Amino acid sequence: LPDWDGKDHISELARRVPTANADWERNFHTWMLGMVAQWVGLNKIHGNAMVPLIIGAQGDGKSTFCKLILPEERRNYYTDRLDFANKNDAERALSRFCLINIDEYDSITKRQTAFLKHILQKTSVMSRQLYSSVITDNARHSAFIATTNDMTPLTDPSGSRRYMCIRTTAKIDTRTPYDYPQIYAQLKAELQQGIRSWFDS
After folding, report:
1. Which of 24-33, 51-60, 112-121, 175-184 has the lowest mean pLDDT?
2. What pLDDT is recorded for position 142?
3. Which 3 state secondary structure label does DSSP give 138?
4. What are the φ and ψ backbone dihedral angles of 127, each rounded to 5 degrees?
5. Residue 79 burial (C-beta neighbours within 10 Å; 0-12, 13-18, 19+)
6. Is the torsion defined by CA of 58, 107, 29, 2 positive or negative?
7. pLDDT tens digits along 85-123
8. How large is the greatest C-alpha to C-alpha distance in the chain, in angstroms?
9. Which of 77, 67, 68, 26 is nearest to 50 (CA)?
10. pLDDT band (50, 70, 90) for residue 141
């Protein structure tokens, strides 16, 4: 990565998502820091359990925005096809992917939601290779993001601290070129400066 040029590229990225939520820029920035901290193993005690949940109309660019968070040469570490019915594969995905998009969040069943809550907080994945008796402990790398067209996707009346619900007010800008080297140079520099990469109370 190049040296960071000092500009706030993360806020610029967040502003591509038009929303009336005044906390979106700040919270998205913290989530991005948490995502990269998870990749490089800075947080070995807690998993990055926060999920931005982008709520909006069909065709407003939600899924495309999620995919474009990773540069093209890293998109083989992105998936929006996680099968929560296959628990073993879903857990292994935590160490295979950098970013998992729960596309159409409202299609997840209540039982799958409980399982998702479980894997969101994991820091590692215990797995056994086929035909092997050895169990390995693999570090978790993935962060989660989600999209839905349902305006009321969370049904638990007590709320959920794991979801950052963002309602779009217009189409998301996915056409303006992304300055990936500077986006990730900024995140790297801020993590090295010790800027907080997790959400407090």
Report:
1. 112-121
2. 92
3. strand
4. -145, 160
5. middle
6. negative
7. 888 888 888 889 999 999 999 888 888 888 888 888 877
8. 53
9. 26
10. confident
Token pair 């409980």 is found at 114
Beta-ladder partners of 144? 100
**pLDDT confidence band for 128 (50 / 70 / 90):** low
* Average pLDDT estimate for 31-40: 94
Strand order from edge to edge, sheet including 163-167 = 78-79, 99-102, 143-148, 51-55, 163-167
The residue ranges of DSSP E strands in the chain, in sequence order, are: 51-55, 78-79, 99-102, 124-128, 135-139, 143-148, 163-167
Q: How confident is the model at residue 133 (pLDDT cuts 50, 70, 90)?
A: low
Per the CB < 8 A criterion, the answer to whether 143 and 98 are in contact is yes
Report CA Rg, the chain: 17
As a whole number of Å, the end-to-end CA separation of the chain is: 33
**Which token pair is 39?**
């990749």
Is 133 within 8 Å of 91 (Cβ atoms)? Answer: no
Contact 179, 70 (CB under 8 A): no
pLDDT confidence band for 163 (50 / 70 / 90): very high
By DSSP bridging, strand 124-128 and strand 135-139 are: antiparallel
Q: Round to whole Å and give the CA distance between 136 and 139.
A: 10
